[in-house]
Amino acid sequence: MPQPLATRAPAKINLTLHVLGRRADGYHDLESLVAFAGTGDDLRLEPGEGLALEVGGPTAPLAGNDADNLVLKAARLLADRVEGLQLGTFHLTKRLPVAAGIGGGSSDAAAALRLLARLNGLPLSHPAVREAARLTGADVPVCLEPRARMMRGVGEDLGEPLNLPHLFAVLVNPRVPVETPAVFKALGLQPGERLSGAGHPLVEWGSLLDTLKTARNDLEPPALRVQPLIGEALDLLRQTAGCRLARMSGSGATVFGLYEDCKTAAEAAKDIRRARPEWWVKDTNLR
Ligand code: C5P
Fold this sequence. Notes:
By secondary structure, the chain is of the alpha+beta class. It folds into 2 domains: 5-158, Ribosomal Protein S5, domain 2, CATH 3.30.230.10; 167-286, 2-Layer Sandwich (Alpha-Beta Plaits). 31% of the residues lie in helices and 29% in strands. It contains 9 helices and 10 strands. It has helices at 70-81, 104-119, 127-136, 140-144, 180-187, 208-213, 220-226, 229-239, 262-275; strands at 5-22, 28-48, 51-56, 87-93, 149-153, 157-158, 167-173, 245-248, 255-259, 280-286. Strands 1, 2, 3, 4, 5 and 6 form a 6-stranded mixed sheet that branches. A hairpin with a 6-residue loop joins strand 8 (245-248) and strand 9 (255-259). Helix 2 packs antiparallel against helix 3 and helix 5 packs across helix 7 (220-226). The radius of gyration is 19 Å and the shape is globular. The two termini are 36 Å apart. Cytidine-5'-monophosphate is lined by residues 27-28, 30, 137-139, 154-155, 180-181, 184.
């Protein structure tokens, strides 16, 4: 019996996200410092004939139908490029909120590519693996090897992994899905339009928190117009003791607060759960 293969699909957090402009094809050029959380979904692959997916876990009912699942999309894109690729049945334990700006679907797809690469003896640097990641979605390449790094372009231009100092975070999602295209549309850029002065200030690595404060998430204002609960979640985080920075991740609705230590973060998470018991709240580390 072949051994099942398993991997964690961690939440992706955009610590910063600067929009540099809109390309002629409609996609936006970005510059983003991406980190990964200690929390995420879990994916297991049972090698076998054909390709299948079973989804369980607390947020499985929100994950949509299997046909749209990025795990299957990524696996098919890889199978189209590698002759005789061995596939099997994926078992996804879904814990992250969906359409949430923390790359749940993208990280699941990247995890599927990692497992298929391992099963078939392909390095993650293999051009077919890279291409399958890029074609699955803009955030999939950065999730392939989930380490903090700069991400540029539409998401395909990746910097070297960065050793960030420990960051303690609280993630808050008001359990309302936010569609990424709607947020980019609300930004209101025309195809070909460039933004001047939008370059990233992350050159000095003195104090990461102080440096992060000089950066932004440019999708925050349009996302707040699309979903005002994001503003409420940011306000709640800012009111917690010891919150050094509160910002939205990706196109929302998940927001994160950063704290000096894990105890302060745990207390803040408790406060937010007390105020909004129906929201998804998670204290975690980022790296
Ligand atoms: O690639 P993905 O399917 O994740 O992107 C979803 C949508 O988000 C795109 O169709 C596009 O409207 C928008 N997007 C964008 N610029 C990016 C990434 C996504 O305009 N860099």
